[in-house]
Design goal:
This protein has helices at about 20-25, 70-75, 80-90, 105-120, 130-150, 170-175, 215-230, 255-265, 320-325, 345-360, 360-375, 405-415, 435-455, and strands at about 45-50, 50-55, 60-65, 125-130, 155-160, 195, 205, 210, 235-240, 245, 250, 270-275, 300, 315-320, 385-390, 395-400, 415-420, 425-430. With about 450 residues, the protein is of the alpha/beta class. It is globular and about 65 Å long.
Length: about 450
């Protein structure tokens, strides 16, 4: 059997050939999200601290960049956070994982108690899942179980929003946007759901989200009509409150969420809110549902839950929903991942939520909102920019053409900013700990990248 060539000091093997970089070794070996195996080589992360990433470009150049993405919206406290590091190490010194079937542990109980304390009043029970997408799967299963236990065996479909995104697993994918989602790629496998039009857009004006009352009234009329038409088959209404994330960074009217809550309550449906991207302060409220002053029946959270350290999500539900399940013949929610309530993840999540409690996240996110509003404003003058909008710690430059992801990323990195555009969007969700200098640099980098790639 042939052995691998020995590697000498200096990055050369015994035959004298240059040792391949991480990017070269990765390309064609690893699948990356929504990317082909022979696509552009990735940047290699050599280190991270605070808001910064130490990157090596495919050609070997080194860059220190501000992570304007918070590692896909999760690393709100930045990298190598002392409190999160300490929580991880302390728990690892005790035990890293135990099954959750028939067992419990302090990190899970502590985290569940903390989540209930923080969540909208009325949510009283917690189910831990491996990821945001899985938490949505659990929420959808719970809604169907609930309706069956309540005597409505036909209620097994969902009313979702056009433009929504809830994950890439099959049930979650079924309530994602039916046009820009992946429904057509998996015929017969994605359950057919019902979809409302995308809710009317809203603008942040003097701390309030404002929208066209006539457009809102028309949308609510469609909501009411669809629910009445399909009432015998609907289990729940599913939505991302106020901000649709991966479906287009669309900010919409809080009145639409209030209407969904009212209609669901009137007709015995459940309201499921997906706060995976919006939860824990990202929109300027602790949970985006607070913009509408509603309490859902079921809420999913993830991403910032562990501060970006480990994968973990949770599904929270009301006492009324849990009581119906407990009184049913099955008595249980039919889901149970191997790594459910992983102690390492739960311990870090407790530390992450404690930081949110102890640090002025409202002031931090307020500073992000003000800083991004100023820093991204110059983009509005660029010829191929259709819109610039900001909500809380979310800043968006929307183009009138599809974003050239590779070129935009390269130029932004050269300006000291890591960004990952998609569709027609060049957007940022920086860590909460970003300084005023960081925020200004992010805005300058994004504006420079758009100007360089998509014209003046």
């Amino acid at each position: 059997m042939l052995s691998a060539p020995a590697v000498e000091h200096g990055g050369r093997n015994a035959a004298g050939t240059t040792h391949r970089s991480l990017a070269e070794r990765d390309r064609g070996l690893l699948w990356h999200p929504y990317a082909s195996l022979d696509g552009p080589a990735p940047y290699a992360v050599l280190g991270a601290a605070g808001t910064k990433l130490d990157l090596e470009a495919p050609g070997g150049q080194r860059f220190e960049v501000i992570d304007a993405m918070s590692s896909w919206w999760s690393a709100v406290h930045g990298y190598r956070n002392e409190a999160l590091d300490a929580a991880l190490l302390e728990q690892a010194g005790s035990f890293s994982h135990v099954m959750f079937g028939g067992l419990t542990h302090a990190p899970a109980v502590n985290l569940a108690e903390k989540l209930i304390d923080m969540a909208p009043s009325g949510l009283e029970h917690v189910f831990f899942a491996d990821s945001g997408s899985v938490s949505v799967e659990v929420a959808l299963k719970l809604a169907v179980q609930y309706q069956r236990a309540a005597g409505y065996s036909r209620r097994a479909r969902f009313l979702a929003l056009s433009g929504g995104y809830h994950g890439d697993t099959f049930a979650a994918m079924s309530v994602c946007d039916p046009v820009d989602g992946m429904h057509s790629e998996f015929p017969g496998l994605v359950a057919p759901q019902l979809f409302l039009p995308r809710p009317p857009k809203a603008r942040l004006i003097k701390g309030e989200l404002r929208s066209d009352p006539l457009e809102v009234a028309q949308w609510v009329g469609v909501l009411e009509e669809m629910v009445l038409t399909h009432l015998d088959e609907l289990a729940a209404i599913v939505l991302e409150p106020v901000l649709q994330g991966a479906g287009g960074m669309h900010i919409y009217a809080p009145e639409c969420v209030r209407a969904a809550r009212r209609v669901a309550s009137e007709h015995g449906l459940l309201l499921i809110v997906d706060e995976i991207a919006t939860g824990f302060g990202r929109t300027g409220r602790l949970f985006a549902s607070e913009w509408s002053a509603v309490t859902p029946d079921i809420m999913c959270v993830g991403k910032a839950l562990t501060g970006g350290y480990l994968t973990l999500a949770a599904m929270l539900c009301s006492r009324e929903v849990a009581a119906v399940i407990t009184a049913s013949p099955l008595r249980a929610l039919l889901h149970g991942p191997t790594f459910m309530a992983n102690p390492l993840a739960c311990a870090v999540a407790v530390a992450s939520l404690t930081l949110l409690d102890s640090e002025p996240w409202q002031r931090q996110v307020g500073a992000l909102e003000a800083g991004l509003t100023a820093a991204l404003a110059p983009a509005a003058a660029l010829s191929q920019v259709r819109d610039v909008r900001v909500l809380g710690g979310v800043g968006v430059i929307q183009l009138s053409v599809p974003a050239d992801v590779t070129a935009l990323t390269r130029v932004a990195v050269e300006h000291g900013v890591w960004v990952r555009p998609f569709r027609d969007l060049v957007y940022t969700m920086p860590p909460y700990i970003s300084s005023a200098e960081d925020i200004a640099a992010i805005g300058a980098g994004l504006c420079a990248a758009v100007a360089a790639v998509h014209g003046q």
